[in-house]
Queue: 2 jobs
Job 1
Amino acid sequence: MSEIVITPARNVAGSIRLPGDKSISHRYAMLAALAEGTTRLQNFSTGADCASTLQCLRAVGVSAAQENGSLLINGCDGKFTAPSAALDCGNSGSTMRMLSGILASQPFACELLGDESLSRRPMRRIIEPLLQMGANIDSRDGQAPLRITGRKLRGIEFRPKAASAQVKTCVLFAGLSAAGETVVEEKLRTRDHGELALCAFGAQIERQRNRVSIRGGQRLKAIEATIPGDISSAAFFLCAAALFPRSNLIIDSVLLNPTRAVLLDVLIALGVQINVLQVDEQHGELVGTIKIQGGQLGGLKISGGQAAALIDEIPVLAAVAPYTRDGIEVRDARELRVKESDRLSTVTRNLRAMGAEVTEFDDGLRVPGGQSLHGAEIDSEHDHRIAMAFTVAALRAEGDTLIRGADAARVSFPGFYQTLDTVVER
Ligand code: S3P
């Protein structure tokens, strides 16, 4: 397990561009694999999670290779071939959950497994709707490994209990080859990259507020696309800049999809100045350049739909909360307990290690403002977002911070520490 020492910073300034969004990269790769023709993707995520997706796709007969800086994926026009070994999803919940939706109707049996963290995560949330659609799936009591035997599927009307874009996407991907119509109706609207990606690859879907429907038997066509920079990776840089009143950071070509960019609204509400310098649209996804300047940070309460929309950004918001004036309270975020680690407890433990006062709730936490933190030993617990969140907190701490398991960052952003070094002034 690698360690890294973070020394405090004086300021954050400069300009960065980030590897492609992880959520979009997974979806484009999977749909490209199903499509007819060769898809060319630029700025594909460099994270280990998306590499797991590509490895699984190769194992079912899809070719995916780099050529002149682009990723070329040769689609199978709907038909994968049986893998010769179990499909290893690594640490990636997105790979396991979304790919299951596609594999459920392929004409072979296969097994999906993952690392220790992924093997603890809840899979019943995809198994149940897929069984209703007629799939044949065995699991270890609702957890990986999953054994899927392909079957003909039928459309269902599904109302997920938990707010999860992975589950919504899994069911919609299954619906693509099911008989009749598949409908997903969400209580809280989650990220809509699955819907936008299906449209980009030529599928017809219908969307009304929180309800999406797709008719089975549609074929997909290859695309060319540049994937916008990952806004959840940008979150660490945005929060780092927010900590320094004189900061000035530009993030180029970053994803601004409204279902993902709630962090920008929240940072503005906290007192940070954010300007959108330019916006474009590609395959339905908004992408733009943003400029961020620090200020006096007030306070926030995050709950309900906002908690669902910020689910990947809450660890870093909580990690910078002690440096605000009024603190940050998060509720309705119980889902954080079933991520790569139990993020409510890893955040609480690590904030306390740095000397902060924190109250942990079953569904959230409260971090009072006006606190100063000291350098400490942080344990990422192999969770990429915890390693990066506490690296950001360490930039304003007194003294050095040792991040144990810093290499977990490679799951979503292997270049995180190098990119951070280009904008941190010490
Ligand atoms: C993701 C959805 C979220 C998020 C994950 C990526 C996606 O997970 O935490 O990092 O790409 O759909 P859930 O679907 O479990 O909420």
Note: Residues 22-225 form a domain with the UDP-n-acetylglucosamine1-carboxyvinyl-transferase; Chain fold (CATH 3.65.10.10).
Job 2
Amino acid sequence: MCGIIGYIGYDEAKNILIKGLKTLEYRGYDSAGIAVYNPDYNQCLVSKCEGRVDKLESKVADVKGKSGIGHTRWATHGEVSDTNSHPHKFGNVTIVHNGIIENYESLMNTLGVASKLKSGTDSEVVAALIDKCYEKNPVDAIISSVKKLRGTYALAIMFDDEPDAIYAVRNVSPVVCCQNDSGCYIASDIIAIAEYCPDYFVLPELTVAKITKDKIEIVDFAKNFVEPEMSAVNWDIKNSGKCGYPFYMEKEIMEQPDVIRNTLHKKLRDNIPDFSSDNVDESIFAECKSISIVACGTAMHSGLIGKQLIEKNCGVPVTVYMASEFIYCEPIISRDTLVICVSQSGETIDTLEALKYAQRQDAKILSIVNVRGSVIAKLSENVIYTDAGPEIAVASTKAYTSQLVTFYLITAKMAYMRGCFNSEGLSSFMDELKKVPKAVEEVFSNKEKIHHIAGSLLTAEHAFMIGRGLDYPALLEASLKLKEISYIHSEAFASGELKHGTIALITKNTPVIALMTQKYLASKQVSNIKEVQSRGAQVITICTTSLKSFATNDFIELPDMDDEFTVIPAVSVMQLLAYYVSSDKGLDVDKPRNLAKVVTVE
Ligand code: M6R
């Protein structure tokens, strides 16, 4: 959480920093700040404030200088305030930090600086530490300082007496770097600086980058030069704004048909799933005796659907774990277990820790990741990239869909390799999967109706969702979407489970969304709908055309397709439903309260 940025070159730093911070705001939006070296004062001048980057921008009109660093914060240690905003300055040293310094209190005591630090953060002490270690050699000071840190960090550092360079160092938390004729750039995410140069590299962990206006030099902690591994942006930079949509979330929902087509295009050869472009050792699919899927939030919900698909089609037992619980619940995994870690950002600390735990148990690892070069991707033996493109809205939509498509592809590959699908079975599965983008487009053509139905949820305080089979994990995701962006308390239940307690909460006019796409479960779902209706619930049915006769008055229709594939169009409908509720309530859809897109704290 938190985003950092840095620039040094021939242009005004402020403009580049502010623009980049706006893009990085998805990482946290409690406060923002920049430090720019001002030659008239021979020092870095810090401007920072609680609130969004827009507010900061209005305060920095007069800031001048050609080098600087910036930060957007998601508060962990210390309240949301001007003082706790970054950058932090101590003596000669100014820093911005993304991560958590676990031993900040003991460092403060050892250095004897407690009374001099102004903020309540875990970060400010790092500026003090580097300042104390500084003997006219910035790289030495940085190396000896970060060796004393416990925790995670991406740091951008400036020294008042060395105005021609900025420095960066990282452990776990990301830093990417790029350069053009106008200067050199660093950021937490390439999306903040890609417009300046599409070729970039991820700063290797535990190395220090010295960034001057014409070059970036990297050394490891033994001061050996390190050659970085270059990457190129693989999405259309021109398409990275809101492109006329009021919010990124709507744009990202609407991108889903193309994202699915793109994934299928990249991962199919002769109509057979093929992960060789990602260098996946495909024997893992044939050899594993069990699978553990580990992820958080939306990514975990994709895993719950993956579980049903794999168990049904491949006969391999699958357990889905919340990554935050995984290492504490003594999971039964061994070298015969395939552990699949799912993460859009590739940075989620709980998923990362689970991955490391699984590696210690000798399990085979496959990660499904969207962000190339992210720490989870780097650490995994096998990675399937979802390539959904940058997802900016905090609420995940297209990344989730691309994770689902990846699970369909893994299922098909595994079933084929294990002889559960013959060639015909495989082609009919793939043919059905290829119909999904069109089905999603069809539901989007009905968006007026979805918008209209969203109106009935605007004043709701609570909502319930019920479904069976694959519909149930799809509703867990739908319910999370509604909660996080509309602030309506929502719970999804397996329909048969509701009457074991929770039905007590259904009273007159309680909204209940009933998803019905599984024909073989329709009659049971209809009974469950009647049960809540007879307690006064207002039921909105989302169902396929062939089940329309069972729908309630308020209903949204999904195109008919094989039951196994309907969850993707169904979730797309419910993403839009949540979106309309949030936007019609006048909420900040892309940046819901208290959240950040990248969760790097346990
Ligand atoms: O980056 P990750 O996929 O690892 O993030 C995991 C969750 O934090 C994430 O899926 C979260 O639940 C969504 N942003 C909610 O929409």
Note: DSSP finds 19 helices and 26 strands in the chain.
